[in-house]
Amino acid sequence: MTVSLTATLDELIRDVPDYPSPGILFKDITPLLADHDAFTATVQALAEVGRDSAGTTVVDKVLGMEARGFILAAPVALALGAGFVPVRKAGKLPRETHAVSYALEYGEATLELHRDAVAPGERVLLVDDVLATGGTIAATRELVEKCGGTVAGVAVLMELAALPGREAVGALPVTALLTV
């Protein structure tokens, strides 16, 4: 990632204090999404995590977690020539699912994945907007493993350095475009 992209991300990601609850500093990515050039550069940088040093795609699927992860993961999957799989909140998927509950920075949640969304042996890239406590990434990894797949890596737009996200995801390789 270039210094220019870092500066652009710093400029376009806005802080919103006390949202969605008091004490939370929300990172608003909508100005970034509205800027075509910055959004394109962000998607390309995230997609690099799913390639080897020769530029060959090394993942079969890209998983994005509800909801902002969808926005980033779908174009990353297109850039990689891989399939996109949504990881949804409980009760949003129409067929048989695996489910995992976990703690958030400001509450609890349950994520679900269709049981056949990841085939045994498939390698996947997890893409999300923020690595905070690591609960979402850890829960999604568990869902992938229940399907028989392997998480090859994690790509996030930003990592909140004050929170223990990397500890929660263990040895998974994590790439964050911005650390705040």
From TrEMBL:
CDD domains: PRTases_typeI. One of its GO terms (molecular function) is glycosyltransferase activity. Residues 35-159 form the Phosphoribosyltransferase domain. InterPro entries: Ade_phspho_trans, PRTase-like, PRTase_dom, UPRTase/APRTase. It is an enzyme of class 2 (transferase). Gene3D superfamilies: 3.40.50.2020. It is found in: Cytoplasm. Pfam families: Pribosyltran (PF00156). It catalyses: AMP + diphosphate = 5-phospho-alpha-D-ribose 1-diphosphate + adenine. Keywords: Cytoplasm, Glycosyltransferase, Purine salvage, Transferase. Homodimer. Belongs to the purine/pyrimidine phosphoribosyltransferase family. Catalyzes a salvage reaction resulting in the formation of AMP, that is energically less costly than de novo synthesis. NCBIfam families: apt, PRK02304.1-3, PRK02304.1-5. This is Adenine phosphoribosyltransferase. It comes from Nocardioides panacihumi. The gene is apt.
